[in-house]
Amino acid sequence: MRWLALFVLVVGLFLWALFREPQVDVANLLWGDNPAPWERVDGVFYPNRAVPMRVESAPGFRTVQDCRDWAERAARRAPSPTSSTFECQVGFIRSVGVLKEYRRTLH
Questions:
Q1: Beta partners for 90?
Q2: Is 58 domain-assigned?
Q3: pTM, two decimal places
């Protein structure tokens, strides 16, 4: 009976790793909106939210708060701070063409 349970566990873990993304699942479960120890936070600042193609970006923050502090400083430099916005993107997963996929996107 123990061998059957072990076999089911191994097959289950194999299928999880094959069809899911274990690193993303673990990070979502244990760290939520915060970066896991192996993740970084990328900041994207939009000086004018009406023109989303014009952006400033800064990769590699260790915390979401560091990203928000950077975005706040960038907003002070913007021509119209009230029309600006930002995103802090946690846990880069993959690039799909020119787009980047992240585990979480926070404002």
A1: 41, 104
A2: yes
A3: 0.79
